[in-house]
Amino acid sequence: MGGCCIYSGNYLIPPHDEKLTEYKVTMKAIEWLNDRVRIIDQALLPLEEKYIELKDYLSVARAIKDMNVRGAPAIGVAAAFGIALGVKDNKTSDYSKFLVEFNKVADTMAATRPTAVNLFKTVDRMKKLAATIEDVPQLKKLLVDEAIKIHMEEIESTLKISRFGSELIKDGFAILTHCNAGPLATAGYGTALGIMIYAHEHGKKISVFADETRPRCQGAKLTVWELQQANVPVKLITDNMAGYLMHSGKVNCVIVGADRIARNGDTANKIGTYSVAVLAKENNIPFYVAAPTSTIDTSIATGDEIIIEERNAEEVTHINGVRIASEGTEVINPAFDVTPHRYITAIITEKGIIRKPYKEGFGI
Ligand code: MRU
Questions:
Q1: Quick check: is 1 in a domain?
Q2: Are residues 143 and 244 in the same domain?
Q3: Does the pTM of the predicted model rise above 0.90?
Q4: Residue from 42, 191, 214, 270 whose mutation best tests the ligand 1 pocket (most atoms within 8 A of CB)
Q5: Is 200's C-beta closer than 6 angstroms to any atom of ligand 1?
């Protein structure tokens, strides 16, 4: 079979014939090792490149909550492997008893983070499969295979997104991005960053402005690191510099990832994305969202229905564990915001570049 990707460092290099039929790839971001899951600890990057092995479903749930693994598609993949570990540790051969334990594991995964829909899609998919067959040994194998399939689908989708999205990038473009939507966040090739890496690998001279992305600084810590690994020219900016750069004519387009997209195209992504989108519209700069269809939540009509995660105050009052605000400072810390669809020029999925009206484009 043709079309194998080559695994090189942290990146999937698309094959020359670009038939996306088979992958012999083990991503470093997250890896299934049959009796355990290995992840790169995203909370420590870029200062420390440390891998951790998660041996049971509770450790996977904790790693998602604590953001050792983060980014919507990667959370979905991690949850699939967490459920697979729970399945392996489920010792009963009685189907109804198996289901009780299985549901406990699946529900624990679903309770880790509320906004990225990939997590809930994974849990639903595994639950649906668990309901189809009562032969426990056979079911256990099918569930583990399904988790691996979910990972491979994300790899394949993100490579297709990267290829489609790169058609929008002209030679010489300066692209602004917010948060981190690279290989780490997707357990694949990357969405927003995948497009940039793909365009760069195919000879386009591009450069990137990476928003720092307070409070957790995924832009400063992860996006810059990933682009440097791929030799894509990148400059780090603080979040409040984006408007200045756009107004000075230094930005040709914006590309960001997504955590959940409603039927009308409203998109939840890392807090601050909405401000970037408004600035882009004001300055006539195209604003693209890149996401696999696993991030589209067809059950919700608009972004108003998206639950926004509120994280702990320390992420705002401290930087890397060092207090910057006075004791007792009151804080709000919404981790995401919703960009209304009117600010979004196009949504780049593995099925192609979708423009308004999004509902029709999504085929729903
Ligand atoms: O809180 P995080 O770091 O999990 O948030 C991640 C983002 O908002 C990403 O931009 C999004 O998940 C897209 S990842 C391809």
A1: no
A2: no
A3: yes
A4: 270
A5: no
